[in-house]
Amino acid sequence: MFLNKKKVALTRLNKAKHENLVDVDIMPLVDLINKHPAFYTTSSCLGRIVVAESPKNDKKREYVWLGKWHRKVEITEVKNAILKHEKNILWFRMDPLILHICCDTLDDCDALLKCAKTAGLKRSGIVQVKPRFMVEIMGVDSVCAPILSEIDDKQLETLIIIANTRMDKNLNKLKIFKKEISVL
Question: Could you tell me the residue ranges of all domains in the chain?
Answer without folding.
Answer: 2-182
